[in-house]
Structures are given as structure tokens and as C-alpha cells.
Amino acid sequence: MGSAALFCLTLVSLASLPLGLGWLTTPPLISLTRRYADQRRRWAHDWTGLRIPDDQRPLPDRQPGLSGHVQHCYQLLRDPATWRELGWLGVDLTAGCITALLPGVLIVLGIEGFVLPLLVWKGLVHDYEYVFLSVSDPVQVALMPVLGAAVLAASLFNTKLLRVHFRLAAAFLTPSKAELAARVTRLTETRHDAVDVSAAELRRIERDLHDGAQARLVAMGMDLGTIEALIERDPAKAKELVSRARTSSAQALTELRDLVRGIHPPVLAERGLDDAVRALALRMPLPVEVTGRLPGRLEAPVESAAYFSVSELLTNAVKHADAERVWVDLEYAEGRLRISVGDDGRGGVVLSADGTSGAAHGGAHSGLRGLERRLGTFDGILAVSSPVGGPTLVTLEIPCALCSPKTSSS
Amino acid sequence: MRVVLAEDLFLLRDGLIRMLEAFDFEIAAAVGNGPDLARALEEERPDVAVVDVRLPPTLTDEGLQCALAARRARPGLPVLVLSQHVEQLYARELLADGTGGVGYLLKDRVFDAEQFIDAVRRVAAGGTAMDPEVIAQLLSRRSGDRPLARLTPRETEVLELMAEGRSNTAIASKLVITERAVAKHTSNIFGKLQLPPSDDDNRRVLAVLAYLDRG
To answer: What sequence ranges are listed for the domain HTH luxR-type (chain B) (predicted)?
Structure first.
């Protein structure tokens, strides 16, 4: 039985974690368990229409080498879904096994009730017990087909039994209420974050408009008023003011342009995330290589969050990492947007659970924390691998839907 | 010289028409959206097209896409693209076919009517007109490169103007130096950047941009 073997092997593997060997054997076993449980989820849906929810956490890209392997294993072990599936294996190999095997046993048993009297009559069987009827008593032999029929009738309820089996699986594989409560708390938190972030953003925009473009336009209006008064009396002075007014208007435009870029970059609006990231890469003072293409446009809020995240990561790489080469990889698969930003700099970025630790990268940390909050609003995650001495690899993942296929020709 | 103009904002379109007419251009068509632009480019066969990047109905880069498509259909069709913002990405796409006759300018450049008209004429004649902002981005990005670092400040100025698509005469008058001095600077620049010398204005710009683009 698959459950029993998997359960025992996983237990042994987990037990050998302290010895070191477990770190190597556990991840494949866990992923096997996952596939096994997923198979059961599919069957439950196909056979009885029961949907067993699945909340396995998405895993960040696996790093090469032994440390990557250990990290991968650690992440698998931290996922409550892993432990739920393991618990389910334990139940499945006992109660689940009975509920799964019983339908088959019932049918075989029912048929046996009809076949056995024939065998007895032919003199092939002498000493045998059929459930509680003995072949030695002719009356009991005569009752065998009746019992067989009853058992077969009972097997008509097999679909119910199968449902019981899958309900059992569902009970163990479904995230518990406590987790749902935790999820609600997390959603409340991220919503607060989102509101805070956008309120701060609005304040920044208001301030920039007030101190920048608006002030310049006022100055321009004043200059124009003075020009009106001077134009005949002192044409030379008026001309000088005209050129100043023109400078003011050019500056106001530049400021507005920068402001727009900070709110919603034009290339992002016009072309979507991948070209926007390419345009961003071209503006970086370092060579930035962008690979990968997205199959279409993403929802605007996701595009925007992803764009500003990449922007922040690139800025970090340029400012803090002392990198010579930076690369970005974009990928969209199975309903998730994944972006990796790597550099060959000196590394040392740490993003601890509370986001407070710091090391060589200095200012990068508060930025990463903010970035995590930004992504959290979309249930996105951020994984950082940055050993001191480098290289740094930051991967972010956002679950999202494509809203339209690519239309642009380029 | 016949111009097809595409700009969706009425005020700007009106202003551009008046400005172009004041400098003796003939407006073959002035349109406000992508499909009309595509049709006008095909039917009117203008000497030059002045096109806003962002046009209805999509209000994305419809104008740029139209211009690129028209140039694929009719290689070398002079197109001057105007935009509220300039991006190297778009500049590269315009320059990619290497046939010249392209320009990419910030909309603000129309403030200086003479310079703007000069850019239109240059593009119509098969030259290029790249926005100083694109060039500044390119130069700042490559500033770590040793060959560029070897240029003197004056040579850098000359390189910038050359990359915008200006002729030696224009560079000389802009920097208030003699044309011979400009020629000397350019040959120094070509030497330092290891670019093959060329008389052709347009190829000169493409060579400079290709160099700046490298890496």
C-alpha cells in the first residue's frame, strides 16, 4: 500500500534529519507525498465531485548546491500543508485503507456466497468458514447465497463508502480553521499596508505637485504679467523674462514627467511589464540583461507592483551591491508571475522573518521590507539569497491572472 | 513639402499645423487616431510624417506601431515621432532598420520652433533627429567605458550633437567654433571610439549610436 510505504519512509527520513542524511532524502519523499495527495484530490473530484482544497505554499527557485538543497528541505518542512499530508498518510493507511478496500471486498465476498455452495456441492471444499456460516452444515451452506446477495446489495452503497473515504481525506487535507483565521489576520494586515502605502503615495504626489510644477507655473504666470507691463517700455528686459518663462515651463514639464513616471511609467502603460522592465534596464547606469517574455498583459495593479519592485531591486543592486553585471528574468507559468533579479555584487542582504536584521547592504533592508509589504497585498512572496561576498539573487512571485494576450507586434 | 500629422490632442494638433504651415509645409492630412494615421500614410504618401506615440483608440503606443509598420511597408519613409516622454527602447526600435529618416523627440522641443522645424527637415532629408535626452541617457550609462572616458569635454559635446543627428555645420554654429575645428574633433572621436570614418551624416549617427549601444 502506497500510503504505508510513503508514511514509513518519510518518518524514517525525518528521524534521520539530525544525522544529516535526512536532508537529502526528505524533499523527494515530501514531493512524492504531495503528488500522491494531489492524485487523491483529483480522484475525489473526478469520482465523487468532492473538492479538497490545497494550500501548499509556492516554493522559491531552488539554489544549486548543498545549501540550496537544505534550504529547499527547510521550506518544505515549514509548510503546514506538508505536515497535514503526512498526518493524512497515517490515517489513510488505516481507516482510509478500510474505506477504500471495503467496496472491493464486499463485491468479492458477495460473489463468494454464490460460488462457495457450488464448490461444496462438488466436494472441493470441506473445512471453511464463510463469514459466520460453516460449510459443514448444509443449512448454513444453503444460506450462503442469501448472505452473498445481502453483501452484494450492501456493496450498492459503495459510492457512499467511497465518499466517506474521500471525506476522511478531506478532513485531514483541508486547512484547519485556525489557519483560516491566520489567513484572515494576514489579509487584514496586508490591506492596512496597502491603504497606508497608497495614502503615503498620495501625500507624496500632492507635495511634489505643490512644490514643483504648481510653483513653476505660478512663477511663469507672474513673469508673463511682468512681460505684459514691460513689453513696450523695456523690450530687452521683457525678452529676458520671456526666456525665463520658457525655462520655467520646460522645468514644470520635466517635473510633471518625472512625477508621472513615479506614478505609472508610460512604457508600462503602453507596452506592459516586460518592455517596461527592458526600458528600465536601459536607464540603469550598469549593463542589465533582461531575459524572458510574458505571454500577455497582467492586471494593472500587479504590473505596477511588479514593476516598482524590479525598479527597487535594480536600484539596490546598483547602489549597494557594487555589482558589475545585473540580470532580470521574467516568467509567467501556472498562474504565477515570477521575476528573478540577480547581481554579481558583494551580497550580504538578509531578509529575516521580522525584516529587521541588517548587514553589508545597508539601506537595502528597509527597502526589501517595504517591497515585501507591497507584494504581500497580492499574496506575493519574496525570496532572497545573498551570502556575504555575493552573488545576490532575489526572486519574487505573485499569483495573478493574465488579462489579455499580447497584442503589440514587438 | 507634404506632411502627415498625427496628434490626438486638438490644441497641440492645431498648434503644430499652424507652426508647420508658417514654415511652408503643406499639411496633407492631420489625424487624431491610429487607424486614420495608417490610412493617411498609405494614401497620401507624404514626404515626412510627424506622429505622436500615444494615439487612440488604444491610447498606448499606437502611433509608434503605425509608424514602424509604415516604414516596414515603405522602407525609409521619414517619420518624426513625438512623445511626452522619451525612452531608449523606442529610439532603438525606430533606428533598428538602419535606413535613417527617423526622429524621436520630446513634445517640449516644439517650444523652440526653429529647432523643431530643423529636426523635421533633417528627418525628411533622410537624416536623424534624436532627442538630447535619449543621448544624455546613453552617454551617462556608458560613462564607465574607457574609450568614452578618454574623450575631452569638448569632444563629448560634439559627440552628443552628432548623435542627435546634426551636421558639422550645425554643430559648429551651436558650439560657436569653426567647421574645421568640428571636423578635427569628429575625426578624434572616431579614432578614440574606433569607428570607421564616414561622410554620410546618417550613417555617422547610426555608427555613433551603435557604439553607445554596445555591451
So the answer is: 144-214
